[in-house]
Amino acid sequence: MRFTLLILLSIFISSCLKLDSNLYNNTNKIKDYQLDDYTGEQDFILDASYAIPTAFINMLSLSSQASGETSATAIKAIYIGDPLKIITDTIILYCHGNKGHMDFYWQRAKLLAHVNGKNRYGVLMMDYRGYGLSEGKPTEEGMYADVDACMKWLKEKGVTNTRLIIYGFSLGTASATELTANPRTLTPSKIILEAPFGSAAVMVQDASQLNMPADYFTNLKIDNAEEIKKVTQPFLWIHGTNDNFLNYKTHGQIVYNNYSGSYKEKFLVDGADHSEVPAKMGFTTYLSVLGNFIRKN
Q1: In 110, 123, 154, 163, which residue has its Cα 20 to 30 A from 187's Cα atom?
Q2: Alpha-carbon torsion 164, 223, 134, 111, what sign?
Q3: Structural domain count, the chain
Q4: pTM for the predicted model, two decimal places
Q5: What angle do CA 166, 171, 175 make, to 5 degrees?
Q6: What is the CATH number of the domain that holds 63?
Q7: Is the pLDDT of residue 20 over 90?
Q8: 133-148 pLDDT, tens digit each
Q9: What is the pLDDT of residue 245?
Q10: What is the number of alpha carbons within 13 Å of residue 261 lying toward its C-beta?
Q11: Are 89 and 121 in contact, with CB atoms under 8 Å apart?
């Protein structure tokens, strides 16, 4: 029995010891952003009715500097909307997942630009350092600094707390929760989490079934289940019931249960795996759920 356990442990360590590297899945390097012309893997492709006018696609290069760093890192971002109207628009700040880069998530950003009508809200999305054409190497604190760099840009354009909504998907839920629970430049007025982590520790335990300390496998300190306790803003949780990467019962449900703020609602998507939520919901339903939540409070 002891020999069998050692074999299983060695297999697990060889595949998951560098959970940080596996989580930051940024190996798909690119030379430029292709957006609608991108032909690589995508979760779904929207039809022509969701097209974004060229004038509303704004490529940005922002400066990000994490605590303790001696120099800034250049990160790439895309703002969907009229830059001249940012001062009055409501903005959805989208924090994407661990896979790929902004081309991979472009369809998702386009979909968000249709919440409550076409280009009703501005949408800002960035590639974390080391992803896409953003410089640097991925780190947890660097990721938070990158999202905050987007908030700094928005604040410079006149965006206020009341007009900022933050949306995190998968890995992006860490930044969305952290920067809502512990605000830096701006304090989001609402938070939307799709397929959130409970914590890095729970992820390790789910994977290993060995109940060993999380720091044996990863240096990540992500703990959405604890940080959400500090959040008072309205909270929407969306998760697929067949999520094989972040089980909704051991991750999202715990985050949802730990929230005790002003208002919360959830939408569980029957049969949806980790990346299937918008498509399995149906785009009309997905946009309706988000729109109703944003308008409600």
Answers
A1: 110
A2: negative
A3: 1
A4: 0.88
A5: 40
A6: 3.40.50.1820
A7: no
A8: 999 998 889 999 999 9
A9: 87
A10: 22
A11: yes
Q: How confident is the model at residue 199 (pLDDT cuts 50, 70, 90)?
A: confident
CA–CA gap between residue 281 and residue 194 (Å, rounded): 12
Chain length of the chain:
297
pLDDT tier for residue 204 given thresholds of 50, 70 and 90 = low
State how far the Cα of 83 lies from the Cα of 87, in Å rounded to an integer: 8
Give 206's pLDDT tier (boundaries 50, 70, 90): low
Q: Which two tokens stand for residue 30?
A: 């690119």
C-alpha to C-alpha distance for 224 and 222, rounded to whole angstroms: 6
SS3 118: coil
Rounded CA-CA distance 109/80 in Å is 8
Give residue 89's Cα distance to chain centre: 21
| Residue 216 token pair | 């044996």
**Main-chain phi, psi angles of 222, to 5 degrees:** -55, 125
Q: 280: domain range?
A: 2-296
Q: What is the pLDDT of residue 54?
A: 96
The helix/strand/coil state of 152 is: helix
